[in-house]
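Quarterly update, task 2.4: pyridoxal-5'-phosphate-bound model.
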Amino acid sequence: MLLNIPRGVYLLALAFTESSMARIFDEDLRTGFGTRAVHAGQRPDPGTGAIMTPIFQTSTYAQEGLGRNKGYEYARGRNPTREALERNIATLEGGTHGFAFSSGMGCLDSIMKLLQSGDEVICAENMYGGTPRLFDRILANFGLVFRYVDTRDPQRVEDALSPRTRAIICETPTNPLMRLTDLGAIGEISRRAGTLCIVDNTFATPIFQRPFEYGADVVYHSTTKYLNGHSDMIGGIAIVKDDDLAARLQFILNAAGAVPGPFDAWLALRGTKTLHLRMKAHDANGRRVAAWLAQRLGEERVIYPGLNSHPQHALACRQMTGFGGMISIQLPGREDAARLLGRVRVFALAESLGGVESLACHPASMTHASVPPEKRAALGIRDGLVRFSVGIEDTEDLIADLDHALQGV
Ligand SMILES: *Cc1c(COP(=O)(O)O)cnc(C)c1O
């Protein structure tokens, strides 16, 4: 009888019944990135043949009898739409299990629940603004100790290790200063010290950077950004390769409950189908806009890992296969930034990044307003800093827009 069931459907049924976690399909691992982006983790709906994963908008599942069900009991723990997304991104990232959350911060908060009071965490000092806010103003109250270091120099990470260090966490390239961390060096330090190595891969995406290949234990994303790519939902995802870590994260996900709704999971799943195409377009536009800005303003004012003038360009070429669409520029002061941002017409003045549309923001007053001014200054987030998320519009229109806007500065 088994022979009459298409393999995909059989695997789907297995995945649904065999475990309380969404498992990726082995056969997805043998295809190229674009094929996986479109298909991985999803099979036509066994009941109807629907080619797209349905939005399972349900809170609970009818059970057949006491202790007998189809593997689904309550939707905080498992939801098939969410599981399709989890399998899809886990496969793209090169992991084995994905756990989707209601936001990138909700995801990080749940990852940190792998730790205990008294544990120490070494954290890159130039992370997304919300990350130190979560750590210092909430999680520190529960006895976690955070040590911030400049992870551009792996020796500083080594020096910050103590017998209580349980995790090293970094983001590369960083937001908004595009600083890089050598993932191989950090992965090695983490392996030797026996700590968790946690990497925020939101900026590069699995298309351009594969932290698991350098020894990461947990890779996470704000799916709000490039993975979804259309600026129409908020979400996060954590991916792991280790079964024990996966079981612990599944427990936290269900117990703490920061899960996304099925519609948001479906939107993100729709987004990842074009990730490989969008990232190519972001990268092409990013390179051209950065080169134009460097010519217009002087390369010392433009921060983009793809420019020769970026101090870590060689590392970028080594551990990334593309540079993406995130560019920052240093203008003399806040007034110049305000004038530029007041004159853009294709770029919109907005927080966030990674969507098909181009955005511009002023980190000091927007994304990094929660970082105290002294700390901002120490990091180099000056009042004249402007950050662009270059979208996939026509390059000429983006450059013309910036040209016009810069004439007012
Ligand atoms: C946006 C962002 C986050 C936070 O994600 P949310 O989905 O906004 O909660 C974390 N890390 C990076 C690099 C981000 O850009």
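Highlight for this quarter: The chain is about 40% helix and 15% strand.
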